[in-house]
Amino acid sequence: MSGFKAAAKMLVAGAALALAPSVHASPVRTGGAACAVAKARVAARLHRPVSSIPFCEPLRAAASPRGYYILALRGRCREEICGSTLIGWYAVRKRTGGVFEWDVAHDRLGGLIG
Fold this sequence. Notes:
about 110 residues; alpha+beta
């Protein structure tokens, strides 16, 4: 019976891993899709609802490195006069949908957002 229980536990663990959201979900083919993926990952990282990141500004493809969408995520201005609402700059890998921080000052990839 203990062998059966161990096999059942392994089966359940494998199913849980298979159903868990992947850090590298699937290819991203448009700037709009890149925005949606980045908003979801960054909101999860910040423990905020996706609605707290209402604005996304993807750069033109010519301004982005090959294989990535570069975009700025912005929050909503809650005051009459606002400074910057920039949450951050991010890179979305087209091939995998992986979301990374983007170092604007040095034009290079930062850490993975997972």
